[in-house]
Amino acid sequence: MSRERILFVTGRLAEPSLKEVLQPLAERVGFDYEIQVLGISVAALMHVDWVNRKLLVPEGITRVILPGWCGGDLSLLADRFAVPFTLGPKDLFDLPEFFGRGGRPPPSLVDYSIEILAEINHAPRLTGDELLRQSNAYRLSGADIIDLGCIPGESWTQIAHAVKQLRAEGFRVSVDSFEQSEVESAVEAGAELVLSCNGTNVHWACELPVEFVVIPDDVHDLGSWEATCRRLQESNRSFRLDPVIEPIGFGFAASLQRYFETRRRYPDTEMMMGVGNLTELTEVDSAGINFLLAAICEELQIGSVLATEVINWGRTSVREFDLARRLVRHSIENRVLPKRLGGQLVILRDPKLRAIGEDGLRQLASRLTDPNFRVFAEGGQVHLMNRDGYWHSSDPYDVFDQMIAAVGSLTAEHSFYLGMELHKAKTALTLGKQYIQDESLRWGFLSVDEISALKRRKHRTGESDDAENP
After folding, report:
1. Is the pLDDT of residue 469 over 70?
2. Cα–Cα distance between 407 and 267 in angstroms, integer?
3. Looking at beta carbons, which pairs linking 47-56 to residues 24 or more positions away fall under 8 Å?
4. Which of 130, 278, 373, 432 has a Cα at 20 to 30 A from 53?
5. Rounded to a whole number, what is the largest CA-CA distance in the chain?
């Protein structure tokens, strides 16, 4: 069987790096290759229409791979040259993964087993529109049930209306209250779960046709909920057990042990965990906490959690737990480590960093023949270069000053652009993130793609695709 012969298309600046990646990769995968450098510095700026005018495909080529950022309809090229055209990865250093030599693609992560109750704190203080807005936001984040958090010592006379309003919009609803009239009204209006039940309210709770979350009368004594469980069982009422997780510094480790003990004593009973007791009361970013608690819940078959988003550092806890429950489900079901699964919860730092290296940066700077600025962030420094020089420092202000001393004044547009890019580069260095010029930094599931300066300029001026980055 003949070996595949692939033509890789790139720009002038990426040629050395592409050669470095392809030589060992071709030997490992088993293909032959040629590289064609088109007359453009930045390969990401290519467009199919432009490539169609510039490209020559040698005889014997079985496939052509274009840079991943190339825009346009590839079928135009395939029809003209009678060979398949595909887009490679957006970063050429990802070619090993593209050819299946850098690990498997991330799984779909659609399965999960843990139900999320998202609490609307101080729900009685909100208008109907505010309740709907927050409920819709929770649903988009992955919540399965909207929990209406009532206010101790007060009676919410409009709770039935709120429950009916949410039910009419397709929401499942739970109510968090020990106040009998609130609970009765909510259940009559369609609430399906009540938080919580213990010895203080079981005498009337067992009369209601609804599922309860049972908590101990004394959190240090699991035996203290046995009478409550017995009363609910005798009344044929469903319930789930919550041993109550305690904040760090107030018995956290002991409370974790109670969840293990509860599962041992009640192997077939549904359980719940209020993860907000950790995410809200621990002054750290909440994603890692949510993941660890999701792992504990998955291993102990704790089927539901109560999540909240009151404190600012936990403002995306519901979405974090939604991603976490899918990750841990995949990990445990397939007996694989929870890594290289898409990186959606890697927020502050990136999963991996790539660097051109000191020699590579110098070589690149020596090849530049145009005034367009290139920005890099590696080796603890911000690097700026064009045909007029190469400037680098750990302080982007120093880099800018060095450049101005060599180049002279810039237009306001250029200064603003460089300020934005140098700031992103410094942020990437500070946090350990990959910086790529004209691309947004990646923040896991919080990433927001940005429109590059080039695309903004083209949209504003109507320039052709042949134009390069200023």
Report:
1. no
2. 73
3. 47/71, 47/72, 47/465, 48/72, 48/73, 48/74, 48/76, 48/77, 49/76, 49/465, 50/465, 50/466, 51/9, 51/77, 52/76, 52/77, 52/80, 55/9, 55/81
4. 373
5. 86
Contacts of 331 (CB under 8 A, 6+ apart): 295, 337, 338, 341
User: Which residue's entry shows tokens 């029809």?
Assistant: 79
- pLDDT at 388 (0 to 100): 94
Q: Which stretches of 161-294 are assigned E, i.e. beta strand?
A: 173-176, 193-197, 211-214, 239-241, 272-273
The domains spanning 4-98 and 115-334 adopt the same CATH topology: no
Q: In the predicted model, is pLDDT for residue 355 greater than 90?
A: no
Q: Which H or E element spans position 384?
A: strand 381-386
Residue 235: is the preceding peptide bond cis (ω within 30°)? no
Asked whether residue 104 carries a pLDDT value surpassing 70, the answer given is no
For the chain, domain boundaries: 4-98, 115-334, 358-461
Tokens 């909100």 label which residue? 126
Q: Strand, helix or coil at 145?
A: strand
Q: What is the mean pLDDT of residues 50-75?
A: 91
For domain 115-334, give the fold.
TIM Barrel (3.20.20)
| Cβ contacts of 98 within 8 Å, gap of 6 or more | 88, 89
* 147 contacts 176 by C-beta, under 8 angstroms: yes
Cα–Cα dist 320/278, whole Å? 14
Question: Would you say the C-alpha torsion 141, 147, 150, 155 has a positive or negative sign?
Answer: positive
Q: Average pLDDT of 207-212?
A: 96
Q: Out of 1.10.3470, 1.20.1260, 3.40.50, 1.25.40, which CATH number does the structure's domain 4-98 have?
A: 3.40.50
Give the tokens for residue 1: 């069987």
Contact 61, 34 (CB under 8 A): yes
* Average pLDDT over every residue of 426-444: 93
458 pLDDT tier (thresholds 50, 70, 90): low
The candidate with the shortest Cα–Cα distance to 114, out of 284, 329, 383, 266, is 329
